[in-house]
Amino acid sequence: MNRPRQSALDTVAHIVLSGIVVFAGAWAGASAAEEGSSFRVESEVFVNGAAEPVARSLTLFRDGIAWDFLDVPVTAGEPRLTVPTATTHGEVVLGEIVLHDPARERVVLIDPVRNVKTQIDAIRLDRLSASLASWARKSDDRLVRWAGGPDFGEGMKESDERIELVGPRVRYAVDFGDAPTPEAAGAYRRFADTAILLKAMVRPGGLPPFPRLAINRRVAAAGGIPTAVALEIDSRAAPVAGRADNLRCVHKFHPRLLSGDLSRIEEAESRVAVATPVELAVFVAVPPAPAH
Q1: Count of Cβ atoms closer than 10 Å to residue 275 Cβ
Q2: Which long-range contacts (CB under 8 A, 24 or more apart) does 101-109 make?
Q3: Is pLDDT above 60 for 27?
Protein backbone atom coordinates (compact mmCIF):
# COMPACT_ATOMS: atom_id res chain seq x y z
CA MET A 1 0.00 0.00 0.00
CA ASN A 2 1.27 3.48 -0.78
CA ARG A 3 1.85 5.82 2.13
CA PRO A 4 -0.46 8.88 2.26
CA ARG A 5 0.87 11.67 0.08
CA GLN A 6 2.32 14.60 2.00
CA SER A 7 0.88 18.05 1.48
CA ALA A 8 2.83 20.60 -0.50
CA LEU A 9 4.04 22.30 2.63
CA ASP A 10 4.78 19.15 4.57
CA THR A 11 7.10 18.14 1.76
CA VAL A 12 9.06 21.28 2.37
CA ALA A 13 9.11 20.57 6.08
CA HIS A 14 11.89 22.98 7.03
CA ILE A 15 9.61 25.94 6.37
CA VAL A 16 7.88 25.23 9.64
CA LEU A 17 10.98 26.73 11.22
CA SER A 18 12.68 28.83 8.61
CA GLY A 19 9.70 30.89 7.51
CA ILE A 20 8.02 34.05 8.66
CA VAL A 21 4.86 35.76 7.57
CA VAL A 22 4.40 37.91 4.48
CA PHE A 23 4.05 41.61 5.19
CA ALA A 24 3.57 44.72 3.08
CA GLY A 25 6.33 45.02 0.51
CA ALA A 26 7.63 41.46 0.82
CA TRP A 27 6.58 40.72 -2.73
CA ALA A 28 8.46 43.61 -4.30
CA GLY A 29 10.53 42.51 -7.29
CA ALA A 30 14.16 41.56 -6.77
CA SER A 31 16.74 44.30 -7.13
CA ALA A 32 19.29 44.21 -9.93
CA ALA A 33 21.99 43.10 -7.49
CA GLU A 34 19.76 40.38 -6.07
CA GLU A 35 18.88 39.09 -9.52
CA GLY A 36 22.57 38.40 -10.10
CA SER A 37 23.13 36.55 -6.80
CA SER A 38 23.10 32.76 -6.53
CA PHE A 39 23.50 30.57 -3.46
CA ARG A 40 22.22 27.34 -1.93
CA VAL A 41 20.86 26.31 1.48
CA GLU A 42 20.60 22.68 2.65
CA SER A 43 18.19 22.06 5.51
CA GLU A 44 17.40 19.21 7.90
CA VAL A 45 14.42 19.07 10.26
CA PHE A 46 14.49 17.19 13.56
CA VAL A 47 11.48 16.50 15.79
CA ASN A 48 11.43 16.00 19.57
CA GLY A 49 15.17 15.44 19.90
CA ALA A 50 15.46 12.63 17.37
CA ALA A 51 18.96 11.94 16.02
CA GLU A 52 17.76 11.45 12.44
CA PRO A 53 16.00 14.19 10.47
CA VAL A 54 12.41 13.73 9.40
CA ALA A 55 13.10 15.68 6.19
CA ARG A 56 15.95 17.10 4.14
CA SER A 57 15.52 19.88 1.65
CA LEU A 58 17.55 21.99 -0.73
CA THR A 59 16.76 25.60 -1.64
CA LEU A 60 18.51 27.10 -4.66
CA PHE A 61 18.52 30.86 -5.19
CA ARG A 62 19.23 32.14 -8.69
CA ASP A 63 18.41 35.44 -10.40
CA GLY A 64 15.81 36.54 -7.86
CA ILE A 65 13.99 33.18 -7.86
CA ALA A 66 14.10 30.43 -5.22
CA TRP A 67 13.59 26.75 -6.06
CA ASP A 68 12.73 24.60 -3.06
CA PHE A 69 13.24 20.82 -3.35
CA LEU A 70 12.49 18.04 -0.90
CA ASP A 71 14.55 14.86 -1.11
CA VAL A 72 12.44 12.16 0.53
CA PRO A 73 12.87 8.47 1.30
CA VAL A 74 10.18 6.22 -0.11
CA THR A 75 9.08 2.66 0.52
CA ALA A 76 9.31 -0.09 -2.05
CA GLY A 77 6.65 0.02 -4.72
CA GLU A 78 5.91 3.74 -4.50
CA PRO A 79 5.90 5.97 -7.57
CA ARG A 80 9.24 7.75 -7.65
CA LEU A 81 11.41 10.02 -9.75
CA THR A 82 15.15 10.38 -9.19
CA VAL A 83 17.62 13.10 -10.01
CA PRO A 84 21.44 13.28 -9.74
CA THR A 85 22.78 14.96 -6.61
CA ALA A 86 25.25 17.82 -6.66
CA THR A 87 27.34 16.62 -3.71
CA THR A 88 27.26 12.82 -3.87
CA HIS A 89 27.67 10.09 -6.48
CA GLY A 90 24.14 8.61 -6.47
CA GLU A 91 20.65 9.87 -6.94
CA VAL A 92 17.90 11.16 -4.69
CA VAL A 93 14.17 10.77 -4.88
CA LEU A 94 12.53 13.90 -6.23
CA GLY A 95 9.73 15.17 -4.03
CA GLU A 96 7.52 18.16 -4.55
CA ILE A 97 9.02 21.42 -5.80
CA VAL A 98 8.05 24.96 -4.84
CA LEU A 99 8.93 27.85 -7.13
CA HIS A 100 9.13 31.22 -5.34
CA ASP A 101 8.85 33.93 -7.98
CA PRO A 102 8.56 37.34 -6.26
CA ALA A 103 8.97 39.37 -9.45
CA ARG A 104 5.74 37.82 -10.75
CA GLU A 105 4.15 37.83 -7.29
CA ARG A 106 3.41 34.13 -7.36
CA VAL A 107 4.32 30.75 -5.93
CA VAL A 108 4.01 27.58 -7.98
CA LEU A 109 3.78 24.15 -6.34
CA ILE A 110 4.72 21.20 -8.56
CA ASP A 111 4.16 17.49 -7.94
CA PRO A 112 6.49 15.71 -10.42
CA VAL A 113 5.04 12.26 -9.72
CA ARG A 114 1.45 13.24 -10.58
CA ASN A 115 2.63 15.84 -13.12
CA VAL A 116 0.37 18.56 -11.70
CA LYS A 117 0.98 22.11 -10.48
CA THR A 118 -0.95 24.87 -8.72
CA GLN A 119 -0.28 28.59 -8.51
CA ILE A 120 -0.91 30.89 -5.54
CA ASP A 121 -0.82 34.64 -6.06
CA ALA A 122 0.65 37.10 -3.57
CA ILE A 123 -2.65 38.81 -2.82
CA ARG A 124 -4.11 35.53 -1.62
CA LEU A 125 -1.31 35.11 0.89
CA ASP A 126 -1.59 38.73 2.02
CA ARG A 127 -5.29 38.23 2.76
CA LEU A 128 -4.50 35.08 4.70
CA SER A 129 -1.96 37.01 6.77
CA ALA A 130 -4.55 39.61 7.75
CA SER A 131 -7.19 37.03 8.63
CA LEU A 132 -4.71 34.97 10.69
CA ALA A 133 -3.73 38.02 12.74
CA SER A 134 -7.35 38.97 13.39
CA TRP A 135 -8.27 35.43 14.44
CA ALA A 136 -5.24 34.94 16.71
CA ARG A 137 -5.68 38.22 18.60
CA LYS A 138 -9.23 37.26 19.54
CA SER A 139 -8.37 33.73 20.68
CA ASP A 140 -9.19 32.51 24.17
CA ASP A 141 -5.86 30.66 24.25
CA ARG A 142 -3.14 32.82 25.76
CA LEU A 143 -0.38 31.35 23.60
CA VAL A 144 -2.29 31.79 20.36
CA ARG A 145 -3.31 35.32 21.34
CA TRP A 146 0.31 36.22 22.12
CA ALA A 147 1.46 34.74 18.80
CA GLY A 148 -0.96 37.06 16.99
CA GLY A 149 1.29 40.01 17.83
CA PRO A 150 1.99 42.65 16.86
CA ASP A 151 4.37 43.54 19.72
CA PHE A 152 7.08 41.06 20.76
CA GLY A 153 9.49 43.49 22.40
CA GLU A 154 9.23 41.87 25.80
CA GLY A 155 10.91 38.50 25.97
CA MET A 156 13.29 39.24 23.08
CA LYS A 157 17.00 38.72 23.72
CA GLU A 158 19.58 39.53 21.05
CA SER A 159 23.30 39.04 20.48
CA ASP A 160 25.51 39.26 17.40
CA GLU A 161 24.74 35.66 16.40
CA ARG A 162 21.57 34.64 18.23
CA ILE A 163 18.03 35.84 18.89
CA GLU A 164 15.68 34.31 21.45
CA LEU A 165 12.01 35.07 21.97
CA VAL A 166 10.11 33.70 24.94
CA GLY A 167 6.33 33.79 25.20
CA PRO A 168 3.65 31.98 27.18
CA ARG A 169 4.92 28.38 27.32
CA VAL A 170 6.90 28.81 24.10
CA ARG A 171 10.50 29.60 23.18
CA TYR A 172 12.07 30.45 19.84
CA ALA A 173 15.87 30.42 19.36
CA VAL A 174 17.53 31.42 16.08
CA ASP A 175 21.26 31.25 15.43
CA PHE A 176 22.45 33.10 12.36
CA GLY A 177 25.60 33.87 10.39
CA ASP A 178 26.58 36.62 8.02
CA ALA A 179 25.10 36.51 4.52
CA PRO A 180 27.63 37.28 1.76
CA THR A 181 25.61 40.36 0.77
CA PRO A 182 22.59 42.28 2.06
CA GLU A 183 20.80 41.18 -1.13
CA ALA A 184 21.28 37.51 -0.20
CA ALA A 185 19.87 38.16 3.27
CA GLY A 186 16.87 39.85 1.69
CA ALA A 187 16.33 37.04 -0.80
CA TYR A 188 16.36 34.42 1.94
CA ARG A 189 13.95 36.41 4.04
CA ARG A 190 11.58 36.81 1.09
CA PHE A 191 11.63 33.04 0.57
CA ALA A 192 11.03 32.37 4.25
CA ASP A 193 8.20 34.89 4.42
CA THR A 194 6.33 33.14 1.67
CA ALA A 195 7.09 29.63 2.87
CA ILE A 196 5.47 29.96 6.27
CA LEU A 197 2.27 31.43 4.86
CA LEU A 198 2.11 28.61 2.34
CA LYS A 199 2.23 26.16 5.22
CA ALA A 200 -0.59 28.02 6.95
CA MET A 201 -2.68 27.87 3.79
CA VAL A 202 -2.03 24.27 2.81
CA ARG A 203 -1.79 22.74 6.27
CA PRO A 204 -3.70 25.10 8.61
CA GLY A 205 -3.76 24.76 12.38
CA GLY A 206 -0.19 25.53 13.46
CA LEU A 207 0.97 28.21 15.85
CA PRO A 208 0.47 31.66 14.25
CA PRO A 209 3.72 32.68 12.55
CA PHE A 210 3.90 36.31 13.69
CA PRO A 211 6.62 35.80 16.34
CA ARG A 212 8.91 34.71 13.51
CA LEU A 213 8.13 37.96 11.72
CA ALA A 214 9.73 39.84 14.59
CA ILE A 215 12.75 37.53 14.73
CA ASN A 216 13.46 37.29 11.02
CA ARG A 217 13.06 40.99 10.48
CA ARG A 218 15.94 41.52 12.89
CA VAL A 219 18.04 38.74 11.38
CA ALA A 220 17.67 40.22 7.90
CA ALA A 221 18.34 43.74 9.18
CA ALA A 222 21.61 42.42 10.63
CA GLY A 223 22.53 41.00 7.22
CA GLY A 224 22.19 37.44 8.45
CA ILE A 225 20.84 34.07 7.34
CA PRO A 226 19.63 31.52 9.93
CA THR A 227 21.92 28.56 10.61
CA ALA A 228 19.79 26.84 13.26
CA VAL A 229 16.22 27.41 14.36
CA ALA A 230 14.50 25.84 17.36
CA LEU A 231 10.91 26.00 18.57
CA GLU A 232 9.94 24.58 21.96
CA ILE A 233 6.35 24.43 23.16
CA ASP A 234 5.33 23.37 26.65
CA SER A 235 3.40 20.10 26.41
CA ARG A 236 0.62 21.58 28.52
CA ALA A 237 -0.08 24.14 25.82
CA ALA A 238 -1.80 22.35 22.98
CA PRO A 239 -3.28 24.92 20.61
CA VAL A 240 -3.00 22.46 17.76
CA ALA A 241 -3.52 18.73 17.76
CA GLY A 242 -0.66 16.73 16.31
CA ARG A 243 2.04 19.39 16.61
CA ALA A 244 5.49 18.48 17.87
CA ASP A 245 6.70 19.87 21.20
CA ASN A 246 10.25 20.46 19.98
CA LEU A 247 11.30 21.28 16.44
CA ARG A 248 14.81 22.03 15.25
CA CYS A 249 16.02 22.92 11.79
CA VAL A 250 19.67 23.12 10.75
CA HIS A 251 20.63 25.12 7.67
CA LYS A 252 23.92 24.84 5.77
CA PHE A 253 24.62 27.85 3.57
CA HIS A 254 26.90 27.82 0.52
CA PRO A 255 27.62 31.07 -1.35
CA ARG A 256 27.59 29.49 -4.82
CA LEU A 257 25.54 26.97 -6.78
CA LEU A 258 27.15 23.68 -7.76
CA SER A 259 27.05 22.21 -11.26
CA GLY A 260 24.41 19.68 -10.26
CA ASP A 261 22.24 22.47 -8.90
CA LEU A 262 21.95 24.05 -12.33
CA SER A 263 20.76 20.71 -13.70
CA ARG A 264 18.10 20.49 -11.02
CA ILE A 265 16.86 23.98 -11.84
CA GLU A 266 16.67 23.12 -15.54
CA GLU A 267 14.77 19.93 -14.73
CA ALA A 268 12.36 21.85 -12.49
CA GLU A 269 11.77 24.47 -15.17
CA SER A 270 10.83 21.75 -17.64
CA ARG A 271 8.41 20.20 -15.16
CA VAL A 272 6.71 23.52 -14.56
CA ALA A 273 6.21 23.85 -18.31
CA VAL A 274 4.55 20.45 -18.82
CA ALA A 275 2.63 19.94 -15.55
CA THR A 276 -1.16 20.18 -15.68
CA PRO A 277 -2.61 23.16 -13.76
CA VAL A 278 -5.07 22.22 -10.98
CA GLU A 279 -6.78 24.02 -8.13
CA LEU A 280 -5.06 24.03 -4.74
CA ALA A 281 -7.68 21.72 -3.21
CA VAL A 282 -6.97 19.13 -5.90
CA PHE A 283 -3.21 19.52 -5.52
CA VAL A 284 -3.18 18.85 -1.76
CA ALA A 285 -5.79 16.08 -1.79
CA VAL A 286 -4.49 12.64 -0.82
CA PRO A 287 -5.01 10.24 -3.74
CA PRO A 288 -7.14 7.22 -2.86
CA ALA A 289 -5.30 4.00 -2.10
CA PRO A 290 -5.37 1.46 -4.94
CA ALA A 291 -7.98 -1.26 -4.66
CA HIS A 292 -6.79 -4.76 -3.82
Answers
A1: 19
A2: 101/65, 102/26, 102/27, 102/28, 102/29, 102/30, 102/64, 102/65, 102/190, 102/194, 103/29, 103/30, 103/64, 103/65, 105/27, 107/194, 107/198, 108/272, 109/8, 109/198, 109/283
A3: no
- What does pTM read for this prediction? 0.79
Cross-strand partners of 162: 175
- Give the dihedral of Cα atoms 6, 9, 13, 16; nearest 10 deg: -140
CB of 197 within 8 A of CB of 124? Answer: no
Q: How far is CA 202 from CA 99, 109, 285, in A?
A: 15, 11, 10
Q: What angle do CA 4, 10, 16 make, to 5 degrees?
A: 155
| pLDDT single digits (tens) 200-244 | 888 887 788 888 878 888 999 999 999 999 999 886 644 444 455
